[in-house]
Design goal:
198 residues, mainly alpha, homodimer, Tetracycline Repressor, domain 2, elongated
Chain lengths: 198, 198
């Protein structure tokens, strides 16, 4: 029993991880479902077995996977420093290094798909919105823990995530760490400007 | 002679504008070349006449069109206030209003395509990089004109554009003006924090 159930579970997991990676590298639309199955070493039949809704249902699961993966990296970065300004700058440096190490390919696992989904694929759009909201929550918790007011922390977390997202896109397109490193410095400065209001 | 040349010129222009709008609404990959020609009221033959390189060559022209269109809006917003912090906040408000008025569809004409192009379509990636660089230059000029040092102005312009880009994506996905309005406030605060260093 263990053996027979472990095989399909492995297939599902491979499908989700492969979809997540392909969507990170070019978005949802650039990934034909056949290529997806092939790269996951799965049959189209097993893809529709696990995801009766097909590519879009698989994409929703893949966004959930990318959400968790990025949240793990973000949480580790934020925990690496006590001071929230230093912590956010450390996250930016981490992202810049990960991006360069992947030859500028491993950007945000959500943004490209998010933009493709807007007004066209509501369930996928909702999954992307949920991912962004989760990441903001991690930053917000860090800011609140440092003594910043709740409303200010929520607002700043929104800008921290959005600035890092925009800088990551620019870093990929320009093949340069500069946009992320600069964003990290500016975000740290912005956060420090609130230190007196704690 | 005037009549016969004006028809093909009109067709080329329609193809570029249609491609730009479709790419703004879902990226490059989601727009099949046949749909593109159809929506531009052009034949596939005329598309390949004007763009022998096909969809990708048309996409490069469409990014150039989106670049200029957005640059016009950005320049107008920046010119609407003397103070650069107020000017950048005014741009954010303008973007938030344009986005809501388009039912959250008319986001950045470049970002979705930029992310799809990274490492996969070098000419398209270069066109997107050029657009971002042009927009930064407008912000940089505004900051330098206000008396800020050149290096600081260049760095800040990078973060201003990236923050607005990231906030625009979040605004679209969340169907909310908040990300852009919050980004505008935070960018104004960041810019003001440099006022003393002029």
């Amino acid at each position: 029993m263990t053996t027979t159930t472990s095989v399909p579970l492995g297939t599902r997991d491979r499908l989700v991880r492969t979809a997540s990676r392909l969507m990170q590298h070019g978005g949802y639309e650039s990934t034909p479902v056949k290529q997806l199955a092939k790269e996951a070493e799965a049959t189209l039949g097993s893809l529709y077995h696990f995801f009766p809704g097909g590519k879009q249902e698989l994409a929703v699961a893949a966004i959930g996977h990318g959400d968790q993966e990025f949240a793990g990296m973000l949480a580790a970065g934020l925990a690496s420093r006590t001071d929230p300004a230093e912590a956010v700058e450390a996250v930016a440096v981490m992202l810049a290094e990960a991006l360069r190490d992947s030859d500028w390919r491993d950007g945000c696992p959500v943004t490209a798909t998010a933009l493709e989904s807007v007004g066209r694929m509501p369930e996928l759009q909702a999954a992307c919105a949920e991912a962004f909201a989760n990441w903001r929550r991690l930053v917000e918790e860090k800011l609140v823990a440092s003594g910043l007011a709740e409303e200010e922390s929520r607002d700043l977390a929104l800008t921290v995530i959005n600035t890092l997202e925009g800088a990551e896109t620019a870093a990929q397109v320009d093949r340069s760490q500069t946009p992320l490193l600069t964003a990290g410095r500016h975000l740290a400065r912005l956060l420090r400007s609130y230190a007196g209001t704690r």
